[in-house]
Write a structure and sequence with these properties.
The chain has 405 residues and is an alpha+beta fold. It contains ten helices and 13 strands. The protein folds into two domains: 255 residues, Beta-lactamase; 94 residues, Sporulation related repeat (Alpha-Beta Plaits, 2-Layer Sandwich). It starts with 32 loop residues before the first strand and ends in an 8-residue tail after the last helix.
Length: 405
């Protein structure tokens, strides 16, 4: 573990304001990417480092970080037996099949969540630390602010689709460096090609580990709206690099892009390069929520353009202002934002769309009937005030299976 101990010097900053909402893998030929020297934090390559993106299972890196932190305080240990709740057992795939009412060792849950990217195990860990996944998600976002991850919001412990989740390549690099700095003894967990889970073994979702010379980890992530993502860690000749690749259309292209970026970076000196914390911030781009163009067999095969609301079709581009517990609250938010924002915001028509989630109803506050440019300007105005905004093209605005619904 000595090779990880030199990763130092990551400053922390607490910032309460953030802007932007996740973009889609299809919005650009390549999603965001970033390569940094793990020890110094020097930025060796950057492409859209501040573009908001859905984190998918990269969120589990923060889940593990908070578990490690709790263990360091003496509140949990590797052999602690954790109960499996009904909520944990009922998580969507990927999962390892935990059964409600049983107990699992914390070490096994970590292996399942980090190596096999199991959602049921991640929720078991979240509930052990915070009592509920909802409370744990608040801790995740609070820790993100402490680590300087100003554009990240975690809505759950798993990275499963949620309209409020977002991150950036820069923020994921900050998280990876913090993990290596604060818990170097745990870093090897993220580099296991397979790991012990009870009486059996689970295989890593990270095929890149065996495809690149010097690969050491860290974590993959995938959802239809996020694409194929990877935090890669590699060491050559005593030099440790971290790479972030977001939004590739296939796992193969994700791995190939990571390998290419890191191979080039190992030939680059860190001298004179800007540091991660000092890299000039980029303005957030307009957010589009669409699935990637090419996905794995049967995973997200249907195009979102084939499903609309028919007679209930919402006109033009729309911007989502948030989801609320009552229709009245949603309407009040629309009125307040239109009054405060002016300009493009006043061009939109108010709309409230009801969404059923986890046995309850939420009310999405929207402005619709906008042109694309107006939707972009509306979100920029809201982001400048630290408010939430998600811009949607007509096909996603009217897709009943879209993530925001």
């Amino acid at each position: 573990m000595a090779r990880f101990s030199a990763v130092i010097g990551l400053g922390t900053a607490i910032a309460l304001a953030f802007s932007g909402a996740p973009a889609a893998a299809a919005a650009t030929p390549h999603g965001p990417s970033l390569v940094v020297d793990a020890e110094s934090g020097a930025v060796l390559q950057a492409d859209q480092p501040d573009q908001p993106w859905f984190p998918a299972s990269l969120a589990k890196v923060m889940t593990a970080y908070l578990v490690f932190e709790t263990m360091a305080k003496g509140h949990l240990a590797g052999d602690t037996r954790l109960p499996v709740s009904k909520a944990a057992a009922g998580q969507a795939p990927v999962r390892v099949g935990l059964r409600a009412g049983r107990k699992i060792a914390l070490s096994s849950a970590l292996n399942a969540a980090v190596v096999a990217s199991a959602n049921d195990a991640a929720v078991v860990l979240a509930e052990a630390v915070a009592g509920s996944e909802t409370s744990f998600a608040l801790l995740m976002t609070a820790k993100a602010r402490q680590l300087g991850m100003d554009r990240t919001v975690f809505a759950n412990a798993t990275g499963l689709p949620h309209p409020d989740s977002r991150t950036t390549a820069r923020d994921m690099a900050l998280l990876a460096r913090a993990l290596l700095r604060d818990f170097p003894e745990q870093a090897a967990l993220f580099g296991q090609p397979r790991a012990r889970f009870g009486q059996r073994q689970v295989r890593s979702t990270n095929g890149w580990l065996t495809a690149f010379e010097g690969a050491r980890g860290l974590k993959t992530g995938f959802t239809c709206d996020s694409g194929y993502n990877l935090i890669g860690m590699a060491e050559r000749n005593g030099r440790l690099l971290l790479g972030i690749v977001l939004g590739e259309p296939t796992s193969g292209r994700r791995n190939a892009r990571m390998s290419k970026l890191l191979a080039q970076a190992f030939k680059t000196t860190a001298e004179g390069k800007p540091l991660l914390n000092d890299l000039a911030p980029e303005p957030a781009q307009i957010a589009l929520v669409q699935p990637p163009r090419v996905l794995g067999p049967g995973t997200c095969a249907k195009s979102s353009r084939s499903a609309t609301l028919g007679n209930g079709r919402l006109p033009g581009w729309g911007v989502i202002l948030g989801a609320y517990h009552s229709r009245a609250e949603a309407k009040a938010v629309i009125a307040r934002q239109r009054k405060a924002g002016g300009g493009a915001l006043k061009k939109g028509r108010p709309a409230v769309v009801t969404r059923a989630q986890d046995g309850s109803r939420r009310f999405n506050a929207l402005l619709v009937g906008l042109k694309q440019a107006d939707a972009g300007q509306a979100c920029k105005a809201l982001w400048a005030r630290g408010a939430y905004c998600l811009a949607l093209p007509p096909d996603q605005l009217n897709n009943p299976k879209a993530i925001w619904r």
